[in-house]
Amino acid sequence: MSTTELLFTRTDPALGDFALRPLDPFSDAQLLHGWVTHPKAAFWMMGDASLPDVEREYMRIAAAEHHEAFIGLHDGRPAFLMEKYDPSRLELVGLYVARPGDVGMHFLVAPSDTPVHGFTRAVITTVMAALFADPATRRVVVEPDVRNTAVHALNEAVGFTAEGPVRKPEKEALLSFCTREQFEAATREGSI
Protein backbone atom coordinates (compact mmCIF):
# COMPACT_ATOMS: atom_id res chain seq x y z
CA MET A 1 0.00 0.00 0.00
CA SER A 2 1.44 3.37 -0.99
CA THR A 3 1.75 6.21 1.52
CA THR A 4 0.20 8.47 -1.12
CA GLU A 5 -2.95 6.35 -1.28
CA LEU A 6 -5.83 8.10 0.46
CA LEU A 7 -7.95 5.67 2.44
CA PHE A 8 -10.60 8.14 3.61
CA THR A 9 -11.48 11.76 2.83
CA ARG A 10 -13.82 14.25 4.48
CA THR A 11 -14.47 17.91 3.87
CA ASP A 12 -15.11 19.99 6.95
CA PRO A 13 -17.40 22.93 6.09
CA ALA A 14 -15.25 25.40 8.02
CA LEU A 15 -11.73 23.96 7.84
CA GLY A 16 -11.37 22.24 4.49
CA ASP A 17 -10.21 18.83 3.41
CA PHE A 18 -9.11 16.03 5.73
CA ALA A 19 -7.81 12.62 4.68
CA LEU A 20 -6.11 9.50 6.00
CA ARG A 21 -3.26 7.64 4.38
CA PRO A 22 -1.22 4.62 5.46
CA LEU A 23 1.66 5.38 7.82
CA ASP A 24 5.14 4.28 6.75
CA PRO A 25 7.33 3.58 9.81
CA PHE A 26 10.48 4.66 7.95
CA SER A 27 9.50 7.64 5.83
CA ASP A 28 7.18 9.04 8.54
CA ALA A 29 9.45 8.42 11.55
CA GLN A 30 11.09 11.86 11.59
CA LEU A 31 7.73 13.59 11.37
CA LEU A 32 6.21 11.36 14.07
CA HIS A 33 9.22 11.82 16.33
CA GLY A 34 8.60 15.57 16.37
CA TRP A 35 4.96 15.01 17.22
CA VAL A 36 5.17 12.31 19.90
CA THR A 37 8.08 13.92 21.78
CA HIS A 38 6.54 17.40 21.86
CA PRO A 39 5.48 18.58 25.35
CA LYS A 40 1.86 18.91 24.13
CA ALA A 41 1.88 15.14 23.48
CA ALA A 42 2.64 14.26 27.13
CA PHE A 43 -0.29 11.81 27.31
CA TRP A 44 1.16 9.90 24.32
CA MET A 45 3.89 8.78 26.76
CA MET A 46 6.76 8.91 24.25
CA GLY A 47 8.34 12.19 25.37
CA ASP A 48 11.81 10.65 25.79
CA ALA A 49 11.67 8.46 22.67
CA SER A 50 14.57 8.57 20.25
CA LEU A 51 14.05 8.49 16.49
CA PRO A 52 14.94 4.75 16.41
CA ASP A 53 12.43 4.17 19.26
CA VAL A 54 9.70 5.79 17.14
CA GLU A 55 10.69 3.73 14.08
CA ARG A 56 10.59 0.53 16.15
CA GLU A 57 7.21 1.35 17.70
CA TYR A 58 5.57 2.02 14.33
CA MET A 59 7.30 -0.97 12.72
CA ARG A 60 5.77 -3.06 15.53
CA ILE A 61 2.33 -1.58 14.81
CA ALA A 62 2.76 -2.08 11.04
CA ALA A 63 3.55 -5.76 11.65
CA ALA A 64 0.72 -6.28 14.16
CA GLU A 65 -2.36 -8.21 13.13
CA HIS A 66 -4.79 -6.17 15.23
CA HIS A 67 -3.27 -2.67 15.17
CA GLU A 68 -2.91 -0.08 12.37
CA ALA A 69 -1.58 3.47 12.18
CA PHE A 70 -2.42 6.26 9.73
CA ILE A 71 -1.23 9.76 8.98
CA GLY A 72 -4.02 12.31 8.85
CA LEU A 73 -3.78 15.11 6.34
CA HIS A 74 -5.30 18.57 6.37
CA ASP A 75 -5.41 20.19 2.93
CA GLY A 76 -2.80 17.63 1.82
CA ARG A 77 -0.29 18.24 4.64
CA PRO A 78 0.40 15.84 7.54
CA ALA A 79 -1.49 17.13 10.58
CA PHE A 80 -2.45 14.20 12.84
CA LEU A 81 -1.88 10.58 13.71
CA MET A 82 -4.57 7.95 14.09
CA GLU A 83 -4.25 4.43 15.46
CA LYS A 84 -6.94 1.79 15.15
CA TYR A 85 -6.84 -1.46 17.13
CA ASP A 86 -8.93 -4.41 18.27
CA PRO A 87 -9.62 -3.71 21.97
CA SER A 88 -10.57 -7.33 22.60
CA ARG A 89 -6.98 -8.31 21.70
CA LEU A 90 -4.92 -5.23 22.65
CA GLU A 91 -4.96 -2.45 25.23
CA LEU A 92 -8.19 -3.47 27.01
CA VAL A 93 -8.03 -7.26 27.21
CA GLY A 94 -9.82 -8.32 30.37
CA LEU A 95 -10.73 -4.75 31.34
CA TYR A 96 -14.16 -4.58 29.70
CA VAL A 97 -16.73 -6.79 28.02
CA ALA A 98 -15.95 -6.65 24.32
CA ARG A 99 -18.71 -6.72 21.73
CA PRO A 100 -18.60 -7.65 18.06
CA GLY A 101 -17.84 -4.53 16.05
CA ASP A 102 -15.77 -2.80 18.76
CA VAL A 103 -12.83 -0.77 17.47
CA GLY A 104 -10.24 0.95 19.63
CA MET A 105 -8.80 4.31 18.63
CA HIS A 106 -6.01 6.73 19.54
CA PHE A 107 -5.40 10.08 17.86
CA LEU A 108 -2.75 12.79 18.18
CA VAL A 109 -2.88 16.23 16.60
CA ALA A 110 0.47 17.60 15.44
CA PRO A 111 1.79 20.48 17.54
CA SER A 112 1.30 23.92 16.02
CA ASP A 113 2.59 27.41 16.76
CA THR A 114 -0.61 28.80 15.24
CA PRO A 115 -3.60 26.83 16.58
CA VAL A 116 -6.77 26.96 14.51
CA HIS A 117 -10.07 27.21 16.39
CA GLY A 118 -12.06 23.99 16.02
CA PHE A 119 -9.20 22.07 14.41
CA THR A 120 -8.89 19.26 16.97
CA ARG A 121 -12.65 18.80 16.90
CA ALA A 122 -12.54 18.52 13.11
CA VAL A 123 -9.76 15.93 13.45
CA ILE A 124 -11.67 13.72 15.91
CA THR A 125 -14.78 14.04 13.75
CA THR A 126 -12.74 12.88 10.74
CA VAL A 127 -11.24 9.99 12.73
CA MET A 128 -14.68 8.85 13.91
CA ALA A 129 -16.21 9.21 10.44
CA ALA A 130 -13.37 7.11 9.02
CA LEU A 131 -13.89 4.38 11.62
CA PHE A 132 -17.64 4.29 11.06
CA ALA A 133 -17.16 4.26 7.27
CA ASP A 134 -16.43 0.58 7.83
CA PRO A 135 -19.87 -1.06 8.17
CA ALA A 136 -18.37 -3.66 10.55
CA THR A 137 -17.62 -0.95 13.14
CA ARG A 138 -20.46 -0.75 15.62
CA ARG A 139 -18.79 0.98 18.57
CA VAL A 140 -15.56 2.92 19.13
CA VAL A 141 -13.76 2.32 22.42
CA VAL A 142 -11.22 4.72 23.90
CA GLU A 143 -9.11 4.71 27.05
CA PRO A 144 -7.49 8.13 27.50
CA ASP A 145 -5.69 9.09 30.68
CA VAL A 146 -8.19 10.19 33.36
CA ARG A 147 -6.25 13.48 33.67
CA ASN A 148 -6.67 14.36 29.99
CA THR A 149 -9.74 16.55 30.45
CA ALA A 150 -9.33 18.22 27.04
CA VAL A 151 -9.74 14.92 25.20
CA HIS A 152 -12.64 13.90 27.45
CA ALA A 153 -14.51 17.04 26.32
CA LEU A 154 -13.73 16.29 22.66
CA ASN A 155 -14.84 12.69 23.06
CA GLU A 156 -18.11 13.81 24.62
CA ALA A 157 -18.67 16.30 21.78
CA VAL A 158 -18.62 13.49 19.19
CA GLY A 159 -20.91 11.19 21.18
CA PHE A 160 -18.76 9.24 23.64
CA THR A 161 -20.13 8.33 27.04
CA ALA A 162 -17.75 7.54 29.88
CA GLU A 163 -18.07 4.11 31.45
CA GLY A 164 -15.60 4.81 34.23
CA PRO A 165 -11.96 4.47 35.16
CA VAL A 166 -9.95 1.32 34.45
CA ARG A 167 -6.44 0.57 35.66
CA LYS A 168 -3.97 -0.13 32.85
CA PRO A 169 -0.31 -0.93 33.47
CA GLU A 170 0.81 2.50 32.26
CA LYS A 171 -2.07 4.71 33.44
CA GLU A 172 -5.47 5.18 35.03
CA ALA A 173 -7.74 5.41 31.98
CA LEU A 174 -11.28 6.67 31.40
CA LEU A 175 -13.00 3.91 29.46
CA SER A 176 -15.51 5.48 27.07
CA PHE A 177 -17.74 4.22 24.26
CA CYS A 178 -19.40 5.73 21.21
CA THR A 179 -21.85 3.81 19.05
CA ARG A 180 -22.52 4.68 15.43
CA GLU A 181 -25.90 6.07 16.50
CA GLN A 182 -24.36 8.27 19.22
CA PHE A 183 -21.81 9.66 16.74
CA GLU A 184 -24.48 10.33 14.12
CA ALA A 185 -26.71 12.06 16.70
CA ALA A 186 -23.82 14.23 17.95
CA THR A 187 -22.84 15.31 14.44
CA ARG A 188 -26.45 15.74 13.28
CA GLU A 189 -27.24 18.09 16.17
CA GLY A 190 -24.98 20.66 14.56
CA SER A 191 -22.55 20.68 17.43
CA ILE A 192 -19.77 19.75 14.99
Give an overview of the whole structure.
By secondary structure, the chain is an alpha+beta fold. Helix content is 28%, strand content 29%. The chain is built from five helices and eight strands. The chain has helices at 29-36, 51-63, 119-132, 149-157, 180-188; strands at residues 8-12, 16-22, 67-74, 77-85, 102-109, 139-142, 161-167, 172-179. The chain has an eight-stranded mixed sheet with strand order 1-2-3-4-5-6-8-7, sandwiched between helices. Strand 3 (67-74) and strand 4 (77-85) form a beta hairpin. Helix 1 packs across helix 2 (51-63). The longest helix is centred in the middle third of the chain and has 14 residues, at 119-132. It is globular and about 35 Å long. The model has no long low-confidence stretch (mean pLDDT 93).
Layout of helices and strands, plus pairs?
Elements: E1 8-12, E2 16-22, H1 29-36, H2 51-63, E3 67-74, E4 77-85, E5 102-109, H3 119-132, E6 139-142, H4 149-157, E7 161-167, E8 172-179, H5 180-188
Parallel strand pairs: 5-6
Antiparallel strand pairs: 1-2, 2-3, 3-4, 4-5, 6-8, 7-8
Features:
single chain; 29% strand; alpha+beta; 192 residues; 8-stranded mixed sheet; 8 strands
Quick take:
The chain has 192 residues and is an alpha+beta fold. Helix content is 28%, strand content 29%.
- Which structural class should the secondary elements be placed in? alpha+beta
Number of helices: 5
Distance between the termini: 32 Å
Strand content: 25-35%
- Estimate percent helicity: 25-40%
Rg is 16 Å
**Number of separate strands:** 8
Largest sheet: 8 strands, mixed
Return residue spans where pLDDT drops below 50 for at least 5 consecutive residues: none
